[in-house]
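User: Cell division protein FtsW. Structure?
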Amino acid sequence: MRGLNLRRTEAVLLALAVAVVVLGHASAGLALSGELPGQLAGFAASQVCLAAAAHLAVRRYTPYADPLVLPLAFLLTGLSLVLLARLDPAYAARYDSAPASTGQLVWTVLAVAAAILLLRFLRNYRRLQRYLYVAMAVSLALLMAPAFFPGDTYGAKRWVYLGPFSFQPGEFAKVTIVIFFAAFLVPRRDALALTGRRVLGLTLPHGRHFGPIAAVWLLSLLVLVFERDLGTSLLFFGVFIVMLYIATERTSWVVCGIAMAAVGATAVGATEPHVRGRILAWLHPFDIYLPPDQRPPGLVSDQAAQALFGFGSGGVTGTGLGQGHPELIGFAGRSDFILTTVGEELGLAGMMAVLLLYTLLVQRGLRTAIACDNPFGKLLAAGLSLVLALQVFIVTAGVTGLMPFTGKALPFLAQGGSSMVANWLLVSLLLVVSHQAGAKHRAREDQFRDDVQETASASPELSRI
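Assistant: Predicted structure:
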């Protein structure tokens, strides 16, 4: 009965999410052309079918999973389709570019299908712990693959091009790397929690245990140097440090990790032109409008300045869906800088609403980690939630000027097939862990009820009560 109630809650929330997405699509069409989009009925049907398929799969394979995870992921994905449909006419007029919303819908269908397949075939997440070294090898291959393929995008090597096809291996690596970190840390957490000498009031770890963090630090630097991918490097190293802290409960690991990240970023920023250009755009965003001979050397992009202009013009309530000019940022307005579209047209209120959706999704993942009594499952759920949180923070901080822009895509919202499929696989893994934690909780409740009934039947006094 408890599983049925959870799925009823999920169905209601999914229906609300579909309604919000369809109304948003209709609103964008009215704002752009004064009439409803011609394909509105087909779009609504596609959203209903996707939501129904995902809900039925969860109901069949993970009935005790958290009822909020799927609706939150679906709503964020639907908002992506609305924003891209709104941006397509502007980009077609300014850049003569092909529509992105149709391709994004296709990738959404593939992503949901991949998530359903994972729910079907991965019935027990503990099986993943056996494949520690497989996950490590796959993660290393995905992280380093772009360095061995020609071509880059805006100075960074994130893509692998295979004929007419291309994908971002780093998006899939964030899932496999969490599996590897969880499987690696669980049997070693007691040794890594041992303390060494005390320096400046901080108890440092034993020197012999610095090997894992040094290896991950070195690999993140290699990604930064050879692929010039600041976002993946930060995400990769950051999630390891946080998972290490969760496993050991030692603040000293966090301090050491921050210090190592600062040293590495400073060294690479001083020697790598692409990274240096990102830092200059962060420190001096408006210097791009100075005469060329007065600009800081290496400052070549106005995206940071255009993003700040967009946020400023949006204010608190926004200019209205379809009434802004996010296309001025360039092609990144549909991918890396799509949050600027939200801030300009929906204002601070709309942007905070989107960020709260991410926050709630992360909170449900962390709640799953707390409810899980298996150490591997606890670290896996926490790692998946935190890799999502870190990526959202890195992207948001970059486009708002809190830190240098990294080029990472905003999960679910930004254009991109690799990102969409990887994030839905992440959600599917969270559902599997959540289901098994919920099923164990239900089993304990049933056992307690049976024990009470057995005791009551054996005692006449209790039976009368």
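The first strand starts at residue 160 and ends at 162. The radius of gyration is 24 Å.
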